[in-house]
Amino acid sequence: MAKLEIKNVGFSYDGETDVLDNINLSVEAGELVCVLGTSGCGKSTLFNIISGLNKPDRGSVSLDGEDITGKAGKISYMLQKDLLLPYRTIEFNAALPLIIKGENKKSAIKKVQPLFGRFGLEGTQKKYPAELSGGMRQRAALLRTYMFSDNVALLDEPFSALDTLTRGDIHRWYISMMEEINLTTIFVTHDIDEAILLSDRICIMRGKPGTFTDEIVIEKKRPRPADFNLTEEFLGYKRLILEKLR
Ligand SMILES: Nc1ncnc2c1ncn2[C@@H]1O[C@H](COP(=O)(O)OP(=O)(O)O)[C@@H](O)[C@H]1O
Ligand SMILES: [Mg+2]
Questions:
Q1: Whether the CB of 36 sits within 6 Å of ligand 1
Q2: How far does the centroid of ligand 1 lie from the alpha carbon of residue 41, in Å?
Q3: Among 89, 130, 154, 225, whose Cα sits 20 to 30 Å from the Cα of 235?
Q4: Given a cut of 90, is residue 246 above it in pLDDT?
Q5: SS3 per-residue string spanning 60-110
Q6: Which ligand is nearest to the CA of 46?
């Protein structure tokens, strides 16, 4: 059984013009799938549906075989530009999902402690977001996202605000962390290189209404070498994707 199954999803904001149509996607546990598409094609709208924030007009979303269409709180979701609260400590920020779910502050903060190491944040518990580097802030935001649920993570352009070097570090860290805890991830990017570097599979989204027009499997085994983006194999994928996007 697939971890996450999206069947025939269609959606319109105004009841007239479809923004999404006939979206189908099946994701296995531990897979890293990328949704790649131009701005405005409906990527964030699709994530709002998968996370249950919006209910689709047609189709269904299921998690481990259970229908969760329109049900929020089952899947972790990091929205585009999901910022940490500036006047709260990192541990409070990380524990926020549990506090929102009704857990008391003290026990919520206690529960997040064991994860600081795994997220490369040891020693930052009492600090404030402004005291951390961009990369660390991003890992803190990912930890907070993970605290919503340890099932499936939806990340909407998670790395786009980081500079190139930090981004490379976070990519490597995210992949190894994901494998360690068998986390399933779907992420959005409009950066083709990032999509090829990270993904098991790339779903190309196009059109109005937006739908998946192509799926490209990146066969290269992990861990992928640091210079993978300089190889013929990488360029082959890039050429193929550019062709599909045109
Ligand atoms: N809350 C909303 N109400 C009405 N239209 C929206 C809303 N959010 C997005 N749209 C429209 O839906 C389309 C898809 O938007 P979006 O899902 O944000 O695309 P992407 O994330 O791929 O850039 C766009 O045409 C956008 O203008
Ligand atoms: Mg978007």
A1: no
A2: 7
A3: 154
A4: no
A5: EEEECCEECCCCCCCCEEECCCCCCCCCCCHHHHHHHHHHHCCCCHHHHHH
A6: 1
Residue nearest to ligand 1 atom 4, measured at CA:
13
Reply yes or no: is the peptide bond before residue 114 cis, omega within 30 of 0: no
Atom of ligand 1 nearest to the CA of 210: 14
Name the burial class of residue 1, with classes exposed (0-12), middle (13-18) and buried (19+) by CB atoms within 10 angstroms of its CB: exposed
**1-72+151-223 to CATH, choices 3.40.50.720, 3.40.50.300, 3.90.1150.10, 3.40.50.620:** 3.40.50.300
Q: How far apart are CA 93 and CA 130, in angstroms?
A: 13
Q: Is the pTM of this model over 0.85?
A: yes
**Whose CA is closest to 79, among 164, 145, 1?**
145
Beta strand segments in the chain, E: 4-12, 18-27, 32-37, 58-63, 66-67, 76-78, 152-156, 184-189, 201-206, 211-217
Cβ–ligand 1 contact at 41 (below 6 Å): yes
Which atom of ligand 1 is closest in space to residue 13's alpha carbon? 4
Q: Is the CB of 170 under 6 A from ligand 1?
A: no
Ligand 1 touching residue 189 (CB < 6 A): no
For ligand 1, atom 8, name the residue with the nearest CA. 45
Atom of ligand 1 nearest to the CA of 42: 17
Residue 150, pLDDT > 90, answer: no
pLDDT surpasses 90 at 151: no
User: Can you state the angle between helices 134-148 and 90-100, rounded to 10 degrees?
Assistant: 20
